[in-house]
Each structure stands twice: as C-alpha cells, then as structure tokens.
Amino acid sequence: MNKPEILIIDDEPQIRKLLEISLESNDYKVISAENAKQGILLAANYSPELILLDLGLPDKNGHEVLKELRTWFNKAIIILSVINNENDIVSALDNGATDYLTKPFRTAELLARIRVALRNNHVQNFNNIEKFGDIEIDFVARTVKKNFEIVKLTSTEFNLLVLLAKNEGRVLTHQYILKEIWGVGSQTETQYLRVFVGTLRKKIEENPNHPKHIITESGVGYRFS
Questions:
Q1: Domain check: are 144 and 204 in the same one?
Q2: Do residues 25 and 33 lie in contact, with contact meaning Cβ atoms separated by under 8 Å?
Q3: Is there a single domain that holds both residue 92 and residue 155?
C-alpha cells in the first residue's frame, strides 16, 4: 500500500523536522519546502495528498499562497500558524483551507485532523443514505433518523445538516454557511444562523449543551463530527 504523501511548507527548520519525524513515524511520506516558491513548485511536481501550510513565509504571504494553490490544487490544505487572529482564520477557511491549527499544536490533534482530511479527499459522492454515529441521513428521501427513529426537521434545518455532514471534519465559516443556505447578502446574519444551529442541536444531539456532532469553532463557524 502506497504511503500518503504530505507536503510541508514552513520556514522554521525545527517545525519542519518535528513534523517530518511525527509524520514519517505514522506511515506518511514527507516532502518539505522552506518558502512559498519552493512549496508551490513541489506541489505541482509531486501532487501530494495533503499540504501543511504556514502563513508566515519569508517570500510570500501565506494567504496569497493558499489562493494560488486553490486555483489548481483540489486536495486538503491544513494551515499551521502562530497567528491566532479570528480574521486570519476566517479568511484562510473562506479561501479554501481545509482546516486551521495554531502553533504550538498537539501532535495527536494534528494527526487526527490529517486523517479526517485525507479520508475526505477520497469522498467524491455520498451514498443515498449515510450514517454518522447515531445519526442516519437519507439524502434522497430527505429524512433523518436518530437511533433508528425519525427526526422531524424543517427544510432549512435539513439543508443545514446536509451542508455540515457533507463537509464532515471541515470547519465551515459563518459566512460560508449563510451564503450556501440563505444566499448572497445574508453573510452578516450570524445570530440567525445560531438560532437554527440551536434548534438543530436540540433535535439530533443527546446533549445540546455538549454537542458531539455540530461542534462550535469559536468566532469562526462550525464543524460536523
């Protein structure tokens, strides 16, 4: 079985070395670049399964690198950055980042995020019916079951659940969700979104106050687990 190949684009030698050791010990093949120019070239030549991208590169802003990569690279890109600014996180996710982790990060968490991202690389089409733990979604019949019992959802609640489920493991920003569900011009209505997430949680979560499916990414958006 071929090892998934991961490209690291980071200007810090210590971080690159730590990532290389951690990834290779978990059966990943690793290539690395110390700047944007080298990283983009390696991405084009090797077509890795996933890219770990630092935003603070010496020769080009990481957000610009992300935008450039997204014009042709359609696999997972996880941002690793010391920047913990809400605007930067939202901007990266809106520009196509699969996920965002701030430095310092826990290796176990990074590996978990990588596994989800790689799994979703290969999910091209959903079956008519998909199960997510105790939740079963029938995309054609537009029905949802929790522990084998039908859950009554409004059309908007169902559409919201489907959008989240089809992006399992990925952080979706408030603006992205609002645009996809309610259309252009609604991106500022975050309170409206919170209300619908709240009602949806009450219907599908065992404990809406401690959700295990619809996870809040504070100040950014939501992730379906």
A1: yes
A2: no
A3: no
